[in-house]
Amino acid sequence: xxxxQLPNILIYLTGVIRPKLLRPHVRVAxxxxxxxxxLRKEGYNAVVVDKDNCLTIPNKDDIHPPYQTAxxxxxxxxxPGRVLIVSNSAGTRKDPGGIAAESVSLxxxxxxxxxxxxxxxxxxSILQYFNGQLGQPITNRRKIVIHGEKVLxxxxxxxxxxxxxxxxxxxxxxxxxxxxxxGTERTGDRVVVRPAEQxxxxxxxxxxxxxxxxxxxxxxxxxxxxxxxxxxxxxxxHLPKIxxxxxxxxxxxxxxTTSLPQPKDVRILRWIEERLSKSKTKPGNYDRFVLKPLxxxxxxxxxxxxxxxxxxxxxxxxxxxxxFDQSLPPITIHPRSWKPLPVAVGLSKSIAFGVALVVxxxxxxxxxxxxxxxxxxxxxxxxxxxxxxxMQKREMEKGTAVAVxxxxxxxxxxxxxxxxxx
Length: 422
Known about the structure:
Elements (H helix, E strand, L loop, with lengths): L7 H10 L8 E3 L7 H6 L4 E4 L18 H10 L5 E3 L13 H10 L14 H8 L9 H32 L24 H16 L6 E5 L2 H14 L13 E6 L9 H11 L16 H4 L10 H6 L4 H10 L12 H68 E3 L6 E3 L3
Parallel strand pairs: 1-5, 2-3, 2-4, 4-5
Antiparallel strand pairs: 6-7
């Protein structure tokens, strides 16, 4: 009995309650260290691969240059229809009209799943694709293909008519200068153009043959434990379990990539995933599918490890916060871009900007107030100085008057007042 399709929040809770589900089978730096040919020999015939930080840089469509060789090897090892790109950005509700999915599919040369529920809840849609139960999305490229098939049909009809005229006028009747003999009949080479229905039928038959080769065995490659590793677990619940006596390899093998082209992407969630999984893998002999990089063949002096306190203090540097701010997805007017972490950072930046404005204008107001107080104090000092000068002037005038009065004396003999000369 297939499992019930659960919402993503419940699937995340199962990963929190059972952290062992977050442990992948293989942990590698990138897809360049995966031996896809060895996996193909073990019977794996389908690949589900993530896009962002696994094949491309987030919000980019072209393959990351260091992964180009490994991606070509993957496409050469597996059939084109057996490699499916499943992303939580392109091909979802965040991508109205499938424009980003169309661009990614053309750039990476592989189909991309159009799904309404994000990973890890889209396991049913993935199985429907590999079982041939999903139709092709109607996109601009599909319209061009339909128009091209119509043109090919018209060209085929014109070619058939021309060959009929050739057989009627040239082959069956002698032409001037042409010896019409049975042994020298000119047949020519015809271009056979198969109809679209015949091509679809042949592709579906080849897909069924590949799917029924050894049963559906899948690889799930991604850079997130909560999405890609849990998606592998959900897919394994739909497929029949393989007993260890028959084959030690599981029906769904999860591969976790750790080398990220943009390492600042959702760093907090990745830290929680690593703490829950304890950076471990599931028990099993899966190291034989990992290619040893060239850097590990030569001894390399590792840099000295820094303490946790120093690493924690680096978060308080402006450079680290600037890198963290640039790694966040932009917030637009569309409500789907209002994610918790960017919104929280935006609110904190707005609050910090408001506080900075208040502090700046408060400091400016204090400076203006100090200037006013200084001018007022200077004016009061000047007024007090003027008053003191006036008071001193008045005292001097009074002293002069007393001195003048002291110079006047009365003559006792005749009673007259006389001024004595000094």
